[in-house]
Amino acid sequence: MQIITFLGFTILVAVIAYLKTRNTEEESSDGYFLGGRSLTAGVIAGSLLLTNLSTEQIVGLNGAAYQSGLSVMVWETLAAIAMVVTAMFLLPRYLKGGLTTVPGFLAKRFDVTTKTLTSVLFLSGYVVVLLPVILYSGSLAISGMFDIPTLLGVTHTQSIWICVWGIGIIGSIYAVFGGLKAVAVSDSINAIGLLIGGILIPIFGLMMIGDGSLLDGLNILTTENPEKFKSMGGATDPVPFYTIFTGMMLVQLFYWGTNQQIIQRALGAKDLKEGQKGLLLASFIKILGPIIVVLPGLIAFHLFEGNLESADSAYPELVRKVLPGAWVGFFAAVLFGAILSSFNSVLNSSVTLFGIDVYKQHINKDADEKTVVKYGKTFGVILAIAAMFIAPLIANAGSLFDYLQEINGIYSIPIFSIIIVGYLTKRVPAIAAKIGLVSGCLLYIISQFFMQPHFVTSALEAAKSLGVTDVKALALIEAQAYPHFLDVMAILFFLNVVIMLIIGKIKPREEAFVQEYTKQVDITPWKYTKPAGVAICVIVIGVYIYFA
Questions:
Q1: Domains by residue range for the chain, with CATH
Q2: pTM for the full model?
Q3: Closest by CA position to 86, among listed 464, 423, 437
Q4: Taking 80 as the threshold, does the pLDDT of residue 316 lie above it?
């Protein structure tokens, strides 16, 4: 029954997506990469949410909650505020310039080399980190829910490889051959299912705890596990409270405001009003995020008494435990859609970056748009295959969500710093942006992969030599041995900006930068953007304070 409901819903979504997009023009850059700049608010919101709410988020963050409790909800609560900032300040500038890619702005503001370096950084991060993590986390979820090792008589590792390649091949067909509109339409359908299913998981879980009573279950969960319901993270938690005011907001603004895989949905809006409404609608729904990506991890901790071998297995094990058989198949299909969404979103963005920013710019400047799309698709296939080989190796990386966030810092902060300086200044030259990109990447790599291990190892060895054996004491020593990676991001962001501004003073560009209005879309803002944005921010702050 599980398999039947899984296949039924998956095929239904594919058929609807095909019927909705079969007449879309996809031989031009706008048609293929941006859905013909025709996306409306509902489609944008659904696609944004499902692109974000994939298994690296659902599995990884619930795993973090299983380990550390409610404090990890900060990844969700601050996201809504970042989306409001994007809608109010960044999106109008993107659409005014008629941008297809974020690096496209950098070409106009600085130079082509800066754009190319940024595109290469995005692509490197996608193929080495993001695509493999999406595939691995998705495979972990599907394998756990269907118990693939038992079903097929294979080992756990073999089941991961099977799922990785299955998801990768299907996702590639969506992204490479369907274009953005096919991705966005399927996302919108799956977003509804994911929200319904995502809310049902904690409901069924709480009812199981409370012997059929939702409220009793919630009361038991909170009273018997009070240490898990502290929203302000301590020094040893994955996200200490103070990091909200250092690197956390920078990460959120990069992800929702400049990350190609995300912002590409808004860039495909038919006008600024629809783009802003889509972002704000998604940000409002995002407030419900902790119910889906944090609460199940807390429920799993209670039901399994903290005895699971891997924290990242908490969510798939909970789904299998609390849902009826037929529902498992349906939810697996929805989750499969979420996996595909994130995978094909990143892949579509990669194809866009390569086709426009690399192939057209450096390989074949005379290529027509049909040729650009063709070679972009070819690159997408190669990228997908590479990611499928890398994905199973993520099993050795420790905490899934922490790994993803920390590694992303290699390219996220350097890129975000040059975009911010590019928009807020008019005379900072291209050389400053190039130095900012290179120095930001190198300094972060040196910090997190050389200095941090050295200082942590030295501190732990010194503590053990003094006879310290308590686990909590050693964890505190480890946390205090070196700044948190979010603090490092904030420090490097500030340093990058200062360096670029100094260079701008010493050697400013000859002419002040002026952004042109390409008139590709109407950029009249939605009249309720500011009041809606303020309301969302107030709600977010209120929610966070309530659970503090």
A1: 2-408+521-546 (1.20.1730.10)
A2: 0.81
A3: 423
A4: yes
